Amino acid sequence: MAKLHASLLGIVLVCAFVESSIVPGVWTPLRVDLMLGMIVGVVIHMGFSQGLFFVLVSSVALEAFSGARPGLIPLFYLGVFVVLEFVKDYIYLENAVTQAFLAAGFFALGAAGSLLLLDIVPPSPEMVPLAVGCVLTGCAGPFMAELVARVKYAHGT
Question: For the whole model, what pTM was predicted?
Answer without folding.
Answer: 0.90
